[in-house]
Design a protein that fits this description.
Layout (H helix, E strand, L loop, with lengths): L2 H29 L13 H14 L13 H11 L3 H22 L8 H14 L6 E2 L2 E2 L7 H15 L2 H6 L26
Antiparallel strand pairs: 1-2
């Protein structure tokens, strides 16, 4: 073996050994799912990815905070873990699996793995096929309420969590604390009476 071939082979060996971890990382990144940035209490990692994708599709960040910015997905997991009984928790798992199966049938992949436009298409289908909430007159539902299904229930929960978050309540919505501050030490004149309420 001559010196030139030995140097060339050594260079190829060093280059290949330096490049191998990068290639492995590239191939693995194409196959691996994105990791969650939070630890679910109730949901499995795939179910939590679904809820995160659902919230991000429903309430994306724009010039206002999105659902993920105010941690709606984490709140929903906490509700499922702490407010639902075992039967309701099992129903959530089944409903997530059914929603993912429909997303796979419609777009070729589970909901969390779809692109934004495919998620929007799945949402449009779910919106068209799910039951509607009855209208209300003076706070009372009109007619007999039919079951609205998982999509609309999860959507309502996500919207309620978003709108009741502190960030949205103080930075997005109008915020005026009523009745205002409390001042318990007001001077009372001789002709004034105290307030009854």
């Amino acid at each position: 073996m001559n010196r030139r071939n030995a140097l060339r082979n050594t260079g190829l060996l060093v280059g290949a050994s330096a490049l191998t971890p990068s290639l492995l990382a590239l191939f693995q990144s194409c196959q691996s799912k994105p990791r969650l940035e939070w630890q679910p209490l109730f949901l499995t990692e795939d179910e939590a990815r679904f809820v995160t994708a659902f919230v991000d599709t429903l309430l994306p960040a724009t010039d206002t905070p999105g659902g993920l910015d105010v941690k709606v997905d984490i709140f929903l997991d906490k509700v499922f873990a702490e407010a639902y009984d075992a039967e309701a928790q099992q129903q959530v798992r089944e409903d997530i699996a059914a929603f993912n199966a429909e997303a796979t049938r419609q777009s070729g992949a589970p909901f969390a793995d779809l692109k934004a436009e495919d998620r929007a298409a799945v949402f449009r289908t779910a919106e068209a096929n799910s039951g509607k909430f009855n209208g209300q007159v003076w706070g009372t539902a009109v007619g007999v309420q039919e079951p609205v299904g998982f999509y609309r229930s999860l959507k309502l929960m996500a919207l309620s969590a978003y709108l009741s978050s502190e960030v949205v309540g103080t930075q997005v919505l109008r915020y005026d604390p009523v009745p205002g501050g409390y001042d318990g030490c007001l001077p009372l004149g001789p002709e004034e009476r105290i307030w009854s309420l």
